[in-house]
Amino acid sequence: MGIAEATATAREQTRARYPDAEGYTDRAGVRLYWERYGDGEPTVLLLPTWSIVHSRFWKAQIPYLARHFRVLTFDGRGNGRSDRPEPAAAYSEREFAADTLAVMEATATRRAVLVSLSCGALWSTPLAAEHPDRVAGLVYLGPAVALAPPHPERAVHSFLEPLDTDEGWAMYNQHYWLRDYRGFLEFFFSRCLTEPHSTKQREDCVGWALEMAPETLIATELGLLSCGLESFERQCHRVRCPTLVIHGDEDAIRPHAQGAALAAATRGRLVTLAGSGHLPQARDPVKVNLLLREFVESIAGRAR
Amino acid sequence: MTLTMTASGQTRARYPDEEGYLERDGVTVFWERYGEGEPTLLLLPAWSIAHSRLWKAQIPYLARHYRVVTFDGRGNGRSDRPSTAEAYDDAEYLADALAVLDATGTERAVLIGLSRGGRWAAELAAARPERALGAVLIDPSIAHVAPPHPWWTHPFDEELDTDEGWAKYNRHYWLRDYRGFLQFFAEEVFCEPHSTKQIEDLVGWGLATTADTLVLTQLGAQPASAGEMEGILRRVRCPVQVIHGDDDRLRPLAVAAAAAELTGGALVGIQGGGHCPQARDPVKVNLLICQFVESLGGMAR
Questions:
Q1: B194/A199 touch (CB, cutoff 8 Å), yes or no
Q2: 3-state class of A274 per DSSP?
Q3: Which CATH number does A2-303 carry?
């Protein structure tokens, strides 16, 4: 923790905009770090995704959205300035959903538009299904949902068992992470950011991932593996708020078909970004920001 | 040529409010004007390895405040590619710049030049002080006023027995492997991390002309001695701002320092900047340009 904090400080970059308020909230012994920007209406809550990165992955959205709306974000447990509990059970989608509500309480936020990336869909969806009064709308970027088959190359190798190869997606393996964490990160983010001229975004992501230890990342992965498809599908059908799915048609992490299926299951709108990979918020921020603003404004009347 | 440019054409943040061609001694020069503000800024061409898109990160910002005129230097872009070395003398580029000022009805302008264009800005300000409100020299290619980088030693004209590194800055190599040279050169220009887009742009612009044309641009006449170059710089009477990347691998910072001293101008170093800070640090460069133009104040208007 000491070293990670020192590293984080050394790596901290200047920001286009700094939080107007920040704080920690404690939920069942786990400290969560949150930030608020702007004072507009409604509130847009930028959710954590897989804890391999922390809330700076929204850095290209915050300064723009905060000019129009009240923007909240927080570091998901396991990375950033939030705690890193040890047991895998601490990283289930239930825990992330409960953290989200805790941050809403701590910031006196009755209702918000929830914006998620990748597996953030696994905690925003149950929140919308179970707390419709708290969720004004859902935006999903490159959602990681099992409503359609994964890329075939990702279904070959075991995450848990030792493998006799380190090639390609065989690196998505807990034993490899402990052996060569940085090697995995370089590979993984090269697949997340497949667009040309993404060197800065890859460097950012690898840097954020290095703020946590591979042991913690393994715990987060084991926590998510326990997520059930059937219950997720049921939750999708219970979503009543407006939804928007944004998915790159060259997403090498999660097939576009998963985003399309989620849009259908929630009866929402699907926007396909041509040529985009898994992190369009980083690589096509202007397009994504305009889509977010348009969506939030379209439901703002209902949200107030 | 036009087809190639169209095929690789990108959308722009801002399009010209007016554009045109002028002809001078049989050579056609393409120019663009953006915005209506005061004063006029003339964004000069650099070496004809690139054309006026090299200013793409300046134009949309500056045109919100000022009237911006730019043109494709002969040898690239939509301007002609004359086939003699004399057509690429410094004097021809200066005459083109004056012709563009005339064609756009511009009496006086702030002259802004990068690399060779920085030299031309100084030469033009020295020769025609009544047309120059001020001059901004960005990583100027000015010889003789300070020692070059130690790796800048290979003869351009001779056949070399190596293609390594700066030995690629050689006419025989250019004719043998033009793209190889462009890639090497662009990577030296953009030594900053995360420059793949700028490298790709520069290689693309380089491919919009030919190795033969680029050889001719290299043979055109320019100030030949320290005495001549220093005399020109000392004759500059307008305010001067020099901007230079302190990691510039083409021209050392000492060149910019000498240019600032000889013109009586100010020098700002861009920390970690390479030879084209206007592309790699556009916000800093744009703000410096604005600050300089504003400092001209009453003089400019």
A1: yes
A2: coil
A3: 3.40.50.1820
At residue A230, the pLDDT reads: 75
- Spell out, as residue ranges, where chain B has pLDDT lower than 70: 1-9, 298-301
The ranges assigned to domains in chain A are: 2-303
Helix (H) or strand (E) holding A27, with range, is strand A21-27
Whether residue B215 is contained in a domain is answered as no
ipTM (interface predicted TM): 0.83
Chain A residues whose CB is inside 8 A of the B197 CB are 196-197
Give the position of tokens 């107030």: A304
Burial B122-152 (b: 16+ CB within 10 A, else e): bbbbbeeeebbbbbbbbbbbbbbbbeeeeee
CATH number at residue B109: 3.40.50.1820
Q: What angle do CA B290, B292, B298 make, to 5 degrees?
A: 100
B202-236 in b/e burial notation, b at 16+ Cβ within 10 A?
bbbbbebbbbebbbbbbebebbeeeeebbebbeeb
What predicted TM-score, i.e. pTM, was given to this entire model? 0.89
In the 8-state DSSP scheme, what is residue A137? E
Helix axes B116-127, B253-263, angle to 10 degrees: 10
Q: Determine whether the interchain pair B194/A196 forms a contact, defined as Cβ–Cβ distance below 8 Å.
A: no
How many structural domains compose chain B?
1
> Structural domain of residue B26, as residue ranges?
2-151+224-300
